[in-house]
Design brief:
The structure is a single chain. This protein has no helices and 10 strands. With about 110 residues, it is an all-beta fold. It has a 6-stranded mixed beta sheet with strand order 2-10-9-4-5-6, with no helix packed on it.
Length: about 110
């Protein structure tokens, strides 16, 4: 199993980013997927989950600002992040729901 996240970076408050995650080693279309994040000095937290059918739900702090989507043909998961805030800073990880495997994540820094 491989989960290769990319697309993080440095952005100003109010800006947008769209990290992606390329999945391999399992049948992507049959699995729910999550995005997690870990801020410096804090526990890893769930950002949101998308079902195998494409329905997503989000933690309250990102509801209305973040959107999770998936592209089955490319085995790729996306996280559209809009109106970013400094408290969104952290390393973002994609995750296969229910399995204990973590890729390297991608770092997002929101700062002026």
């Amino acid at each position: 199993v491989q989960l290769q996240a990319s697309g993080g970076g440095l952005v100003q408050p109010g800006g947008s980013l769209r990290p992606s995650c390329k999945a391999s080693g399992f049948i992507f279309r049959f699995n729910a997927m999550d995005w997690y994040r870990q801020a410096p000095g804090k526990e890893r937290e769930l950002v949101g989950t998308i079902s195998s059918g494409g329905s997503a739900n989000y933690t309250d702090s990102v509801q209305g600002r973040f959107t999770i989507s998936r592209e089955y043909a490319r085995n790729t998961l996306y996280l559209q992040m809009n109106n970013l805030k400094p408290e969104d800073t952290g390393r973002y990880y994609c995750h296969r729901t229910g399995y204990d495997y973590w890729g390297q994540g991608t770092l997002v820094t929101v700062s002026s």
